[in-house]
Amino acid sequence: MAFTMGMKRGFGRAMMMGTALLMVAGSALAAAPGYRDADAENTLVIDTSKGRIIVEMYPELAPQHVERMKTLTRQGFYNGLIFHRVIEGFMAQTGDPKGTGEGGSDLPNVPAEFTVRRDTSFPMTVAASPRGSVIGYLKAMPVQTQSDDLMAITRDNRVHAWGLYCPGVLGMARAGDADSANSQFFLMRSYNNVLERKYTAFGMTLVGLDVVRKLKLGEPPVDPDKMTKVQILADIPEAERPKVEVMDTSGSAFKALIEQKRKENSADFSGCDLSVPARIVE
What we know:
Number of strands: 17
Structural class: alpha+beta
Largest sheet: 8 strands, antiparallel
Order of helices and strands: EHEEEHEEEEEEEEEEHEEHE
Strand order of the largest sheet: 5-6-13-12-14-4-3-15
Number of domains: 1
CATH topology: Cyclophilin
CATH superfamily: Cyclophilin-like
Shape: globular
Distance between the termini: 45 Å
Oligomer: single chain
Helix content: 10-25%
Strand content: 25-35%
CATH class: Mainly Beta
């Protein structure tokens, strides 16, 4: 069965949210406050025929999907696989050993994790509260959730939260069955809210959104681009491992960015209005 996104190709407004990448010397970073190291155990380093993409994953949103990506990556499953479906204004899809959109791994399918039930301990930074919902950031991942006020009337004292499909977001492809995700995944080239709560969103591109947008278009593309090697950041020998730092979204510097953006917009704040700055330390 072909893995599809189950949606129209005409989208709402496409927000050009490019993840900020600064290439700076190590000495310049020493005095810069407000950054954290990328989570090495949950970060993918995807080397492609167009360049390197680095994606941080968030088990707080989708633990089973994160574990599946790590398992297949450590098996070398993704090495050499093509980007078989790349659509302008939408996303780049890969992870199929057949290269047709119909394949997967030998592992069982992963059940849907479209939303997560959260309580007040959920580690997100609130950016806005439009119409009874809450928009914020789980580390570098833009998220939306129901209001805390609803916790008082739910059986488990929790509410739903989910990732927003902003540019750079990592999502898992599936067939018609909600629980049919397996090995195929996609990286967003542009914003698309139609996917939210219908496809599991569980990561964010920290480095290489420009690479995602350079991949050859097509379904499949002619002479498609491929993933030459995919690794977990923690598994790369220390001498070769890129040092990736991300602005700490719980810190004052990021909160100031939120306030600045809200003043510029003079309207409701969207999670896709602001990307979390990231940089490689050399």
